[in-house]
């Protein structure tokens, strides 16, 4: 469903506050902010996959009031704060642990849930900024404002924690076109590249996925004095322009989704097999190459390694044990439960599954310092 559909054509547009002469070509859309509409799906808590509600055809002012009202919600733990997706969800077969729970409870196995199979299209971008220096963060906001682009930004739950230096902020920007999952990824990277030279989202690339849940404004009582929000009601960003920038900046970092996307020259000591051996030999082959990959790599790469192991082992327990063993060697390891949740989120019927060649691609690019 396109959140921009059904807009009235007889509304009068308010003049924008920044002249077109001041804009970089193509970044500021001709769509006035009063004409913009978005959609939000809400969740009760951080770990829930089933939504508690949704709002469509919402204005920018309504989005601001919903996500970051006058004061943040006080919660003792991040998991207790409400979260959202910047789009509607569609009815589709349930997946992962949500499907398992529905089957055990005798409930329908088709419905709406937070997953890549259920998201629709978004007309706003949401970016988590983790650890950026305050001066760099504010410079990006100033550039958005100078370009006449509307934005909402607010500190996240972890902002101000002693072990979480730098700015911890969530940024929301309206765009003039409906973005599907791939368009969203490209536009997200384009926004980061154009306004923060690719540094704002570097610490957490998971936000480039449309299905990644985002927290509403909340904070711990002890850090209430450090909670902040920033807003500017300018114009709307061009989705096409941001996608174009994102496509250019993503080529070196693009994560291939199957073996065919791996480079032609394989990593040292490895060949690209037509098919992997079975059983213990296959696990040994996987174990050998993932030993060259840092489990504390960027989130996208870590998740890709798990997906490859899942696909090549058919989602077996032996494959899970290998994935957990590899992940546990990293400082970011949160325990077996997290690995199990990711394991259940993968789909053996994926039309373009990540395969062994993707591991070769990671090793080559990490060795060259592309990551």
Strand portion: 15-25%
The Cα radius of gyration reads 21 Å
What's the domain count? 2
Strand runs, count = 13
Element order: H for helix, E for strand: EEHEEEEHEEHEEHEEEHHHHHH
Indicate the overall shape: globular
SS class: alpha+beta
| Count of individual helical segments | 10
Descriptive report:
- This protein has 371 residues and is of the alpha+beta class.
- It folds into 2 domains: 231 residues, no CATH class; 109 residues.
- It is built from 10 helices and 13 strands.
- The strands form 4 sheets. The chain has a 5-stranded antiparallel sheet, sandwiched between helices.
- Helix 4 crosses helix 5 and helix 7 packs antiparallel against helix 8.
- The longest helix has 16 residues.
- The radius of gyration is 21 Å and the shape is globular.
